[in-house]
Structures are given as structure tokens and as C-alpha cells.
């Protein structure tokens, strides 16, 4: 299940956002917040052990990144994906993915099963809470004596930088730090970093975009309705 979560991150806006923040990597702690992972009682150690021989996912600093194999590139670049999608309703709402898959196997071999999005807001909220906890003691506001537009300049000044937000003038370090304030200097460049408190971390994380806008949801709903109608017509033709 862990590998599926990573493989399908490109269709999950929240995970895409995390991948952008972490240069393509998604924290294992974030993945562990999902319901299925909690049901499996997964831990970071178990996840790391399960992907140690993987050729599709790489591990670095407690984060996972999808290796872009030729098969994966073909998958994300496919333009006619809707022609291979099928909407099916009427299942027991308490069924899990494994039960759905077992039923569908009698008729087809599904490559991917996705649920409706009613609980996405809750999932995003839970993942954001985990993110806030993970970022505590890692986020710092910076002041620099010269204007810079290249994050490499800041990474060259400050050690262990995982991410630089030039717009908000915030950096995230790879590891939690005990100090509240620190100054770095190199050649004619000088930068001072100050740790964000818990409230500031929450405010920063809350700026991460929500999963879908109303406009996006409307478009998806229209496409889903159209596809459902087409499927119903196909079923009628088969019966006749």
C-alpha cells in the first residue's frame, strides 16, 4: 500500500504539494497519517523495511520519492486516460479496497481503484496536522544582507537546508534544531535565521493550498456524470 500511495501521488493534490516542498520527496510521517496505513498499524521502520529492495521508490532522510521509470513516465503522460476509466456505484460504503478488488477480479483486472472524494477534506486536514508536527523546530524565518533569487545561495550559506521559500523568506532544515536564532556568514554574504514558534508554523502550513477548488470539483463532477451516462448506455447495449 505504501508503494501505491507514492505511485499515485500525481493524482493527489496534497501529496503533489508535499513533493514540491521536498524536491520530489514525501515524508514517510505524512504517508503514515492516511487511514489505510493506520489500519495496517504501519510504522516508519516497517515502511523503510518494505521498500529496501524497491526499484520504483528511493529513500532519503525519512522521505520517499518515486523513481521515474519509463513505465511511470508513460503512465503520467497518457492523454486518453478517461477512455480506460469506469465509474461503478452500489457497493457497500463500509467495504475496503481489498474487498472491492476481490469482487472486481471476477470481471476485470483493475489497475487502480479510487474512492469518491467525500472524505478528502478530512484526509488533508489530518495530513496537515502531521506536517505541522514534523515541521516544528525545522522552520526558520531568514534575513539576508543582499537580495537573492537563487536558493542555492542560501543553501550554500546555511547547512542542512531542505527547502527554501523565497516568497515568504522561510527555510526548512532537514533536522530539528534546539537553537532559536543563528547567524551564518560567508564572503560578503550574511544571513540570520530565527525559528518559527508553534503558531507561526501552523499559519505557514495552513497556506498550503486545499486539495481542490470549487471550480475543479465542478469540472470533475461534470466529467463523472458524463462518464456514468456513457457506462449506463454501454450496459444497456450489452443487455440488449
Automatic annotation (TrEMBL):
SUPFAM superfamilies: Winged helix' DNA-binding domain. One of its GO terms (molecular function) is RNA binding. Keywords: Ribonucleoprotein, RNA-binding. GO terms for cellular component: ribonucleoprotein complex. Transmembrane segments: none annotated. Residues 222-240 have a biased composition (Basic and acidic residues). SMART domains: LA. Residues 1-76 form the HTH La-type RNA-binding domain. Residues 207-240 are annotated as: Disordered. Gene3D superfamilies: Winged helix-like DNA-binding domain superfamily/Winged helix DNA-binding domain (1.10.10.10). Residues 208-221 have a biased composition (Basic residues). InterPro entries: La_HTH, WH-like_DNA-bd_sf, WH_DNA-bd_sf. The keyword Transmembrane does not apply. This is La ribonucleoprotein. The lineage of its organism: Eukaryota, Fungi, Fungi incertae sedis, Microsporidia, Nosematidae.
Amino acid at each position: 500500500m505504501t508503494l501505491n500511495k507514492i505511485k499515485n501521488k500525481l493524482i493527489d493534490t496534497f501529496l503533489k504539494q508535499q513533493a514540491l516542498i521536498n524536491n520530489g520527496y514525501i515524508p514517510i510521517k505524512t504517508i503514515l497519517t492516511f487511514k489505510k496505513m493506520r489500519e495496517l498499524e504501519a510504522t516508519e521502520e516497517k515502511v523503510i523495511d518494505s521498500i529496501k529492495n524497491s526499484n520504483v521508490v528511493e529513500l532519503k532522510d525519512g522521505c520517499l520519492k518515486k523513481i521515474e521509470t519509463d513505465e511511470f513516465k508513460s503512465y503520467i503522460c497518457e492523454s486518453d486516460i478517461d477512455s480506460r476509466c469506469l465509474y461503478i456505484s452500489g457497493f457497500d460504503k463500509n467495504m475496503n479496497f481489498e474487498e472491492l478488488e476481490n469482487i472486481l477480479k471476477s470481471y476485470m483486472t483493475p489497475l487502480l481503484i479510487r474512492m469518491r472524494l467525500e472524505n478528502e477534506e478530512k484526509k488533508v486536514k489530518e495530513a496537515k496536522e502531521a506536517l505541522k508536527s514534523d515541521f516544528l523546530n525545522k522552520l526558520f524565518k531568514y534575513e539576508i544582507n543582499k537580495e537573492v533569487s537563487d536558493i542555492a545561495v542560501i543553501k550554500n550559506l546555511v547547512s542542512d537546508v531542505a527547502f527554501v521559500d523565497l516568497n515568504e523568506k522561510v527555510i526548512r532544515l532537514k533536522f530539528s534544531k534546539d537553537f532559536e536564532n543563528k547567524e551564518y556568514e560567508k564572503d560578503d554574504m550574511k544571513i540570520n535565521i530565527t525559528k518559527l514558534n508553534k503558531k507561526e508554523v501552523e499559519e505557514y502550513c495552513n497556506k498550503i493550498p486545499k486539495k481542490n477548488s470549487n471550480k475543479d470539483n465542478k469540472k470533475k463532477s461534470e466529467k463523472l456524470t458524463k462518464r456514468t451516462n456513457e457506462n449506463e448506455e454501454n450496459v444497456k447495449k450489452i443487455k440488449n
